[in-house]
Design brief:
This protein is mostly helical and 234 residues long. The protein has one domain. The chain has seven helices and two strands; from the N terminus they run ββααααααα. The radius of gyration is 21 Å and the shape is globular.
Amino acid sequence: MQLSPDSTILFHYGFVTINATILFTWLVMGLLVLSSWLVTRNLSTGPVVSRRQNFLESIISMILGQVGDVTRQPPERFLPFLGTLFIFVAVSNLLSVIPGFKPPTGSLSTTTALALCVLVAVPAYGIIDSGLGEYLKNYIRPTPLMLPFNITGEISRTLALAVRLFGNVMSGSMIGGILLAIAPLIFPVIMQLLGLLTGLVQAYIFAILAGVYIAAGLKVHEETVQVKIHHEEH
């Protein structure tokens, strides 16, 4: 049993190696780009909209509501990033029901790359919100001695995010493989349904945690500004 799609080599020539993780990541990205183009073309701004547009707007409204509840910030600014994370992870996991498809989220390299995107997004949103100098000061508050601890916290949080998603997807695949080997006539349908549910849950958790981390960085800045205002008033 292969634990990761990284071990499935599909093409190798010289220093160029294409494994299942790379191939299926490209396929998911291509599918998402094509689907986005098909879904968003011919959108109407008038009073009468199609069922397709109505369904799309309902999904966007639901995601905006979830993002707003988590971040306590205007959700529109976070929608492109968090929405993309959710859709990519969800589609990757849901497509695992197709025979022969190996979800790229079952690779530690993919989940690490996604977690690194979150690692970059957290300070990026903070810098946009408060400026580079003011954001960097958060790493040395309340004392410069906290600098190594704050940096270590950022890195460990990113690693936890990557390992969490990888471990859940990998363990689900292992359990499914074991059960199918033991009783191939009983468990296939049940495992497919559980796989769909688990894939959606993991995508939701990953996106929500990313939103929590971003919101936490912005909240530190807001609390700092409020403290400064309080001192100036007194």
